[in-house]
Amino acid sequence: MPLEELTETTFTLVAEHMSLTQIIEAAEGLIELAFHPTRPKQAPPMPIDELQALLEKVIDLRDWQELEEEDDRSDIQKLIDNATDADAVLVRDPSGTPELQEIGILELLQRYPCRGSDARWSADDAIAFLETKTHWLDAALESWDADGEAIGSDSDLIEAKAVVLVVPGQPGQALRTELHDVLIPVDS
Question: Is residue 37 packed enough to be buried (19+ CB in 10 Å), middle (13-18) or exposed (0-12)?
């Protein structure tokens, strides 16, 4: 089994029972133990590569979580900002805090898998969501020239669409996509 799959499996199993901070402390403790001078030489080898990969993954997730928790923008501002952001998507999940979160695309696929017993959407649905995001992102970016100036706009605002993945509150219901009209201010 490739290291990436092994790390993903390990994280999935551990994340059900421990917080991100607890996982970080446990992985760091195991790595320290593996190199401790009192560890018997005949002891089974520790999976250092897997522990390092797990530690990196969890630290990245914790950093994203901290960024999300510090995000004090209003929902309207998140919609406006995300309409031209190629690196993040918006997810409205009633079980999350805040309910409307901006997350990275890889984190999206980790939180809301397309396969397995927990899947609430298919790979085709995920691709369709990302294609919708790309379509409206391209449309918004076409309103700007190479210098960041609005093209053909006599107004101080440009019309765009924000794409949001909605997680229904009922377990087992499929994820769905919503489009929201937004007006992006033109910087003078």
Answer: exposed
CB 162 within 8 A of CB 83: yes
At 47-95, the pLDDT tens digits run 788 878 877 877 777 766 655 556 678 899 999 999 988 889 999 998 8
How many domains does the structure of the chain reveal? 2
**Residues 118-149, buried b or exposed e (16+ Cβ, 10 A)?**
eebbeeebbeebbeebeebbeebeebbeeeee
Q: Which helix (H) or strand (E) is 88 found in, with range? A: strand 88-92
Containing domain of residue 167, as a range? 75-185
Spatial distance between the Cα atoms of 49 and 4, rounded to a whole number of angstroms: 10
